[in-house]
Amino acid sequence: MRTGVVVSGCEALGRVAPLGLQLGERKGELFFDAHDARAVRAPTMLRRLARVGTVTIGAALVDGRIVAALEVPSVQADVVPCGVLLADRHRGETVLLMGVGVVGVGSFEAVSGDGTVEHDGRTIPIVHVGKLLDELERLTWEVRRTTRMPDSAGLAAPPGPSDDGRATS
Amino acid sequence: MSVPRTRKRWLELLRRTAGVASEPRSVLDDAALWEARDRATRAAQEAEKFGERVAATAARQRANVDAAAERASGALARRDVITGDVRHVLDSLERLGVVGLNVGLEGARTAEPQGRALTLVSEELRGHVGRGADAARDLGGRIDELLVVVVDLAQRIERAQRDAQELSQDSSALKTAVQESLTGLEDLGTHLRKATGVDPETARFVSLASDHAKGLLDALTALEGSGGMKAASALSPVLLPVMRLLSAIVPDEPPSGTSGSSP
Q: Which ipTM score applies to this complex?
């Protein structure tokens, strides 16, 4: 058994090749371990900085701390936009995954040796946050190298207004 | 003077009295003119009365329509408030749902049996929140539908308001027209008095007398035709004063086809 959270709507993450994520059979579902998925939070502010494909990279203010934010296009219009706060226990880094929907929380049957869990008869791949952060870091460096821009603005142009702050809590 | 002869004479007088109407220009024509003018005046007065009632009803209707328009406008003005309230309810429910998710995550991290209890609480909480949010969205949708109806009603009321205003103006115009016609009829009366030399009271009596004379003549002619003239002698006490009056009113005419015979 694995305890954690199953999220949906991560198709955009699957389309970003360097991340190398294998998505679930339906709805772009992914599983995060309960010790990696720390909480579901509504950020006080979200600033979008760059975009890779349809995934937006930015910074969010959560519980008074600034954390990295990864936003995928959301299919549902939430009144309170929330994200799953993911933490890498070993590196002490956190990232807020925005735009995903939480499908289930609790204990899930692990498929032995497969790196997947079962939820409602579907097989959901387990994602390691450390690996996700590694891939994200490599991606940002790659974008920076190809665009030959020395600073953080060297990423692809941010979507819409760059200063897209919004108070949600 | 024998009875048959007397009878023939007053019948002749009566015929001549009733036959006045067939003359080309007579007092009876004047009387008919006056009567027509009186009828027109009465009709115009009735029209004026009904016009006033229509104007009063139109004013009441307009006041009601104005009040309805104000209420509809008030309901529309509250649209944003209602939408905001529904949004606020949804906001609260979603935040509660987030609390449920976090309880579930905490339960997933906590060892048994406390972890299991937290997970159950989380599921229960999220179930209720989900149903509450669905109900709130349904409510919001129904309120939106109602508001669409209110918008439609407001537009219809606006049209009714314009119609009521038009009706009010038309009833005022009608009142003016009727008053104009009454003034015209008064003028007509003045000119009729000058033209005919007959006052309306006399004309009415002449018309009345003519009608009665025609009626009396018809009845007596019928009585004569049925051979019941003997029975008519019972009318003598009533008819003799009439005959005397007729003799005074209608001038004698020499009987046609006779020579030198006295009445």
A: 0.76
